[in-house]
Specification:
Blueprint (H helix, E strand, L loop, with lengths): L1 H27 L4 E2 H7 L7 E8 L5 E3 L4 E7 L13 E6 L11 E10 L2 E9 L13
Parallel strand pairs: 1-2, 5-7
Antiparallel strand pairs: 2-4, 2-6, 3-4, 4-5, 6-7
Amino acid sequence: MRIGRFLIGAIIIGLAVSYLVYAGIRETSVYYLKIDEFDAKKGGLTGQDVRVAGRVQHGTMNWNASTLDLSFQLGGFDKEGEPATVVPLSVAFNGILPDMFAEGRDVIVEGVYEGGDRFVARTILTSCPSKYEPEAPAS
């Protein structure tokens, strides 16, 4: 009798833990779309939460330190000097400027696509440079 109650309790606890693990993995396993993949699918993504990976385009960054407003254009990854062929995405963000954020840097933005070329980011993730380049020695 006691073993039956213990077994039923253990099964209930095991099911509860399994559900919590499943729900946690499902919620946090949102993959990102590269900017060219996003550009091809953006018609069906209006109003949805999405993650988009791209490169901050040179000359488009506008940072206001007093209001913590950041805007920039997110473009494609050019390959060895070739220009990217996607239409840049205008990104608006309000918050602390992420470390390592700069023009020409690869980033992942997470937020809501509002349609057209407007994306409102909640989070911006920056990546480290892909290769280390030491400083030139002082002469």
